[in-house]
């Protein structure tokens, strides 16, 4: 049997610019972001400034992880213990996890067939719960109808926090993902759009929210060592009532991130070339239903999704197994037990009882996902499509599905 031999989890090596910056920093021994000498700005502070500039916002704060950025965002926006927090039913486990860690109670909202949030159910959930907070996950890089989402948030006075783990570099109607809400949260973990192993960033244009976030992240009193935060003199009483929840980024990670940030647009183009090649392949295959994208969305295609609505569960399982034999780790959000990043809301047993989510149940039951690392080229995409087609034909020839 023909097999695809490349790894879906292998990212590109870091560039010489990143490696040189890391080595130069290690030679100084000053890896802590606030450990600076006279006249030095520091890699983390510079990264934050460049990140904020790239998004066109005044403030950015780097921290320990994307999930940690979400926790900080909720706390900085004033979440109190036991507060309800709206959240998409289809998201990654660190999102409900960060709501839980910050003391909130997740209220899940149903999704549309394109996997994005259902604005009508958002409205219903807001009315039922009275929630004042909403963590909107642009899950797997799909941005839903932001006009409709913002209208619901405005009507109900909801503070929006965007989870942009898969949408750094993406826009909706020309506006960068992460700049619609009060806070945008990003991840620089290896499988996202910038790679520092682990890491997170949050962005905002609200000075008080950012002051709290800076203090929460563990800034001691080094507010003057930030280049993309409110001026140091303005921290006033905030510094006396906000806890230090230690979760800073270090200069080593920031040093490898700065050259990558400068390359983000070029990488986006390469990701989208892979995405469009895969998408064109899927469009030619029977039984593979592509996930539509909003016309105002300008995305980064670092992964691709498709649905298999005409197949039984047994046949989807057979297809996934056939793909695995061919070296293609198709992730299926409908499998009985969660594996890898495919956990579903019903596997987050610590959540309070969930609202009925009929559409999420139906959509996730047949939803599949593939990562598209930049170590692939368009020929690899063609091979993957061919092998998935083989796996599908094998399943169909053995099954009763017509
Ligand atoms: C990766 C991810 C996160 C969290 O990022 P970490 O840096 O791993 O904590 C949050 N939301 C989504 C949708 C993600 O994919």
From TrEMBL:
Q: Which domain of life is it from?
A: Bacteria
Q: Which GO terms describe its molecular function?
A: transaminase activity
SUPFAM superfamilies, alphabetically? PLP-dependent transferases
Q: Does the keyword Transferase apply?
A: yes
Return the InterPro entries for the record. DegT/StrS_aminotransferase, PyrdxlP-dep_Trfase, PyrdxlP-dep_Trfase_major, PyrdxlP-dep_Trfase_small
Among its keywords, does the record have Transferase? yes
The UniProt keyword set, sorted, is: Aminotransferase, Pyridoxal phosphate, Transferase
For this protein, the parts annotated as crossing the membrane are none
Belongs to which family?
Belongs to the DegT/DnrJ/EryC1 family.
Under the heading PANTHER family, the entry gives: DTDP-4-AMINO-4,6-DIDEOXYGALACTOSE TRANSAMINASE (PTHR30244:SF34), TRANSAMINASE (PTHR30244)
Name of this protein:
Aminotransferase class I/II-fold pyridoxal phosphate-dependent enzyme
